[in-house]
Design brief:
239 residues, mainly beta, globular
Length: 239
């Protein structure tokens, strides 16, 4: 490939095996590019405004920063930050109303589905619905109301991966629902909505770790299995 241009870079660069996260979504009007940038399991950078780890980023598609970003005029804050306090973002998507949602893998349990709002702080690692892998407790969101709580939290973990909002005609009863793949849960999870509220509506056990979920142009749902021998499955209604 030729004439490549870097439009955004993770700051700071870190070492280790922590998840990169890094999912992208364009706004429905195509004007903005949103990037989910995980905390790389480094914890504190998710609250550090001079770092873009543990953040959702908002840019123009050419990489320039919109002047109406919430922290653009704040000293010692990176201007591309849209929201903060995230952990391992493995799915971001817009719903039919143009609202941005993200799902993220919690520490030990406490996976989250969040309605992403301008300048909001989702609290990690100060609060979480899960705990550290070594057993240390993390206070729940209800102990710190200044932080945005998830719309859905999963305890025990589903280990989420992938996020879509279904808009097809093959499954008309599911229009407007979100679908999330499950790794540890080996499932496809359907989430239903009532205004700003959300809940798990159905869980389809797939028998394998699900790495990604997408909607096809015909309205079929495609799920990608994880690992050696993983298959791409096309889901359509039974006749």
């Amino acid at each position: 490939m030729k004439n490549l241009k870097t439009i955004w870079t993770q700051k700071p660069k870190v070492t280790g095996n922590g998840h990169y996260s890094h999912r992208i979504a364009f706004s429905p009007d195509g004007e903005y590019l949103f990037i989910g940038s995980g905390d790389r399991q480094k914890f504190d950078p998710a609250q550090d405004m001079a770092a873009n780890l543990g953040k959702i980023i908002r840019l123009y598609p050419d990489g320039t920063v919109p002047k109406d970003n919430p922290f653009v005029d704040q000293d010692d804050a990176l201007p591309e930050i849209w929201s903060l306090g995230h952990r391992n973002i493995l799915g971001i998507a817009f719903d039919s109303e143009g609202r941005l949602w993200n799902q993220e893998m919690g520490p030990k349990d406490g996976d989250e589905l969040n309605l992403v709002q301008r300048a909001a702080n989702y609290g990690y690692p100060i609060v979480s619905e899960g705990d550290h892998y070594d057993g240390r407790k993390i206070p729940n969101h209800d102990t710190r109301p200044e932080f945005e709580a998830p719309k859905v939290a999963w305890v025990p973990t589903i280990a989420p991966s992938g996020l879509i909002f279904y808009s097809g005609d093959l499954f008309p009863a599911w229009k407007g629902s979100a679908f999330i793949g499950g790794l540890a849960s080996q499932a496809l999870i359907r989430v239903s909505f009532d205004g700003d509220s959300a809940k798990e509506a159905e869980r389809f056990l797939m028998g394998n770790r699900i790495r990604e979920v997408e909607q096809g142009p015909d309205g079929a749902i495609y799920v990608l299995e994880d690992g050696e021998g993983g298959q791409l499955l096309k889901l359509t209604p039974t006749k």
